[in-house]
Design goal:
There is one protein chain. The protein is of the alpha/beta class and about 450 residues long. The protein contains 17 helices and 15 strands. Strands 4-10-9-8-7-5-6 form a seven-stranded mixed sheet, with helices on both faces. A four-stranded mixed sheet has the order 1-2-3-13. Its cofactor is pyridoxal 5'-phosphate. This is Aminotransferase.
């Protein structure tokens, strides 16, 4: 693409395209970055820059870019049967095969899938169906969901309400009723003098306090991301989730894992709940299920919940035109086949993730980094004003964006949330590419530190 074409596209974009999660006025002035091609862990932009994508698009391109097999699977299904619905006593072959495949992969007895187009819709689905689950068992007042402040569960009315992002709640009058939040587990800022493991228990017991405050007969479910992604990769201590599980069982509160990021290998296990050793009753998935090649999400229910929904729930008054879309299902099946045949999750767990963790810890020695946290293929560098203290910059968020731009100038895509640099590369990243990631990140940190000193 010529520079002229690029400028023209940027002008059209500014004139006609409202971007999600952007200050659109500022973006129009700056000009959108237009991506044109992807291969493996790299993407190219319209100016011809080759970038190492250490964020896998948006936490999703797990098998990397440019895998032709997924295009072939989509084309074949489009030619055979481009669409049919799953309403009206019908469905299609790939949809059934995917539901069965997910039941095989999902931990424990999460054997039942309800398909959506996105993670947000999957979370909307669980809000409705879990409330319905309790209502048809004569407990209509057991309808409250507890989430976490700063959690992220998508942007629909239910998704944004279950999430705990204040800025999102301010737009559109959220949260909707009967959704409550507890503080997230973030030892770095909140842990005080406790060890991470001690703190994990303290943070989990906030759930018990909240359940007792509201009354267990009112609380339908607790929802959480195994690792909180969007807010800055908050990795809870290993004591946190088993204690959350114990509390949920004690009060008969359903445990919902939002696995939209953590699912499909991100932690070096198939699902984040396996990494932390707990068993959800319900889970939501999206992103990595198709490696982002086509939109697809699902809510998965265990035998108990599915039995009630089927045997007592009557007609489920819920669904999308594209629930279980055969083309999306065919692409998901092909994506999962590649992950299994090429042993991507095992390679991460035993080889590349431990190596990445080593290199990430070395970045933690940089004077700008207060904490280098990582779990599997998901990490963050918390940039701080003073390495000896666990606290944020006074003007929070003033440094992360600067560091992100320095990384881009080095040919590296990292995401900045506040002053944390977030990492979530394609699972296929090689040791050589991890070395490149290390070198470019170090240079970006140096450039950022130099700017702060100036
Ligand atoms: C991205 C995300 C969602 C929302 O998924 P969409 O497909 O963007 O609607 C929900 N939960 C988590 C944890 C996510 O990261």
């Amino acid at each position: 693409m010529t520079t002229l074409d690029t400028r023209h596209l940027q002008q059209l974009d500014a004139a006609h395209h409202l971007h999600p999660f952007n200050d659109n006025a500022a973006l129009a002035k700056r000009g959108t970055r237009i991506l044109t091609r992807g291969e493996g862990c790299y993407v190219w932009d319209a100016d011809g820059n080759q970038l190492l994508d250490a964020f896998a698009g948006l936490w999703c391109v797990n098998i990397g870019y440019g895998r032709k097999e997924l295009g072939v699977a989509a084309a074949r299904q489009m030619e055979t049967l481009a669409y049919y619905n799953s309403f009206f006593q019908c469905t299609t072959e790939p949809t059934i095969a995917l539901a069965a495949k997910l039941a095989e992969l999902a931990p424990g007895d999460l054997n039942h899938a309800f398909f959506t187009n996105s993670g947000s819709e999957a979370n909307d689905t669980i809000l409705r169906l879990v409330r319905h689950f309790w209502a048809v068992q004569d407990q209509p007042r057991k309808n409250i969901f507890i989430g976490r402040h700063d959690g992220y569960h998508g942007t629909t009315m239910a998704g944004a309400s279950l999430g705990g992002m204040k800025g999102m709640h301010q737009q559109g009058g959220l949260p909707i009723p009967d959704i409550h939040h507890i503080d997230p587990p973030f030892w770095f800022i909140d842990g005080g003098d406790l060890s991470p493991d001690e703190y994990g228990l303290v943070a989990a017991r906030r759930l018990e306090d909240k359940i007792l405050e509201l009354g267990p007969e009112r609380v339908a479910a607790f929802i959480g991301e195994p690792i909180m992604g969007a807010i800055g990769v908050y990795i809870p201590p290993m004591t946190y989730w088993p204690e959350i599980e114990r509390i949920c069982r004690k009060y008969d509160v359903l445990l919902v894992a939002d696995e939209v990021i953590c699912g499909f290998g991100r932690t070096g296990e198939w699902f984040g709940s396996q990494y932390f050793g707990f068993q959800p009753d319900v889970m939501t998935i999206a992103k990595g299920i198709t490696s982002g090649y086509i939109p697809l999400g699902a809510a998965m229910f265990n035998d108990r919940v599915a039995w009630v929904l089927k045997e007592q729930g009557g007609e489920l008054a819920h669904g999308c035109t594209y629930s279980g879309h055969p083309v999306c299902a065919a692409v998901a099946l092909e994506n999962i086949r590649i992950m299994q045949d090429e042993k991507l999750v095992e390679t991460c767990r035993h080889d590349t993730a431990p190596y990445l963790a080593e290199r990430w810890a070395q970045l933690g020695e940089h004077k700008l980094v207060g904490e280098a946290r990582i779990a599997g293929m998901m990490g963050a560098l918390e940039l701080v004003p003073d390495k000896r203290q666990r606290r944020f910059f006074r003007e929070r968020g003033s440094v992360g964006g600067v560091c992100r731009d320095h990384a881009l100038a080095q040919g590296l895509i990292l995401r900045a949330t506040w002053d944390a640099m977030l990492l979530s590369p394609p699972l296929i990243i090689s040791r050589e590419q991890i070395d490149m990631l290390f070198a470019r990140t170090w240079k970006a940190l140096d450039a950022t530190a130099a700017g702060l000193a100036a």
